[in-house]
Glutamate--tRNA ligase (Streptomyces coerulescens), 494 residues
Amino acid sequence: MASAPGSPVRVRFCPSPTGNPHVGLVRTALFNWAFAKHHQGTLVFRIEDTDAARDSEESYDQLLDSMRWLGFDWDEGPEVGGPHAPYRQSQRMDLYKDVAAKLLDGGHAYRCYCSQEELDSRREAARAAGKPSGYDGHCRDLTDAQVEEYKAQGRAPIVRFRMPDETITFTDLVRGELTFTPENVPDYGIVRANGAPLYTLVNPVDDALMEITHVLRGEDLLSSTPRQIALYKALMELGVAKGIPQFGHLPYVMGEGNKKLSKRDPESSLNLYRERGFLPEGLLNYLSLLGWSLSADQDIFTIDEMVAAFEIADVNPNPARFDLKKCESINGDHIRMLDVKDFTERCAPWLKAPFAPWAPEDFDEAKWHAIAPHAQTRLKVLSEITDNVDFLFLAEPVQDEASWAKAMKEGSDALLRTAREKLESADWTSPESLKEAVLAAGEAHGLKLGKAQAPVRVAVTGRTVGLPLFESLEVLGKDTTLARIDAALAKLMA
């Protein structure tokens, strides 16, 4: 069942264009991409867009844009081409029709005329009798007379694949040896009554025609694997397939309450992470940890390091829980790994409309570049930059009333007057001098630095937490800082 020794690795990523990409889908793409890169193989990017009711061109464009943003490149597929084009299933219908006809002619498939009501009734009876409730093979061996009778009734048949009456065993690359008995893998539909091919046909047919050697996909598709293996054997007999790929089923990604993360869960949306300012490399680092690790004591690594080490056999089959806080923490580490120039460039979208509350003409490039190295040490996601630096570009700080109430205790006015006096005579080219000024003001009022700087921070920046205070004051400048302290004193005395 394995690909021939020494044969090149060919894997595929084949999403459906049905809305916002899911982080579980991204994890699957990542593992396929890393596996192909590690083995100097080929990644085929294929679009499964045969569901006209759910698929859309907008979602298709979004998929390609997401792949580019994540940094995934593909060797064959949309916009790249390749020897097995086209790579959109909606453009391959004649191929599926041809293969379905060959399966029917070869006796590997048959037409099933059962109505949905008949199927439901027989399944319910099987359940009541304690028997498997899958398809019972009713139409497997119809006589010509029975077929004519069904046709006379106006019944439109589906096409079912004829499963062999044998146990199917295969070695999963993640889970080891797995066995499925015939009673648990009944005949299944491959073509709808209207002639439209089903996923159960098009997916393995494309894998066969594109000579895929390894199928790495989600655990939810594990139950379909014995059916596909049987179909591969039939396709090999018909000369459509050259072999059977190796399968590896990746663990579920779990959300809150130990439930499988679904598209309805807010934290599953890839767009959410882009909008919040996650770095692709930070998000991918975290997603790689959902079932795999570089080593027991290293959570932070580059994509290149992952590619160098990645083997599908090292994937843990147990479900992996998505932890947003850990994801943010890892992303923050990757932000700090950027060189400052790269960091400033990546922050650019959040320093202008619609995110920035200041007018474009009030943005000061020199101040931004001066504060950027200090901001880089504090962010978990890039979108946090807006609130962290708004005090530099607004005429007055955004006063958070909760912060004001927390910082401006009794005696804060006296402290601010002393701090103003000390700051006025400080050396404004040295953050250390500004720190000494506020420290001296605190000592004059019996306060340690932490307590002394809180009212100053809120007066100047509007918040109790933020970027390093004394570096911020230096960038903001003496005149503006003193004017804001004066405004805070006026508010306290009002």
Observations:
- The longest strand covers residues 168-172.
- The mean pLDDT is 94.
- The chain is about 45% helix and 10% strand.
- The longest helix spans residues 23-38.
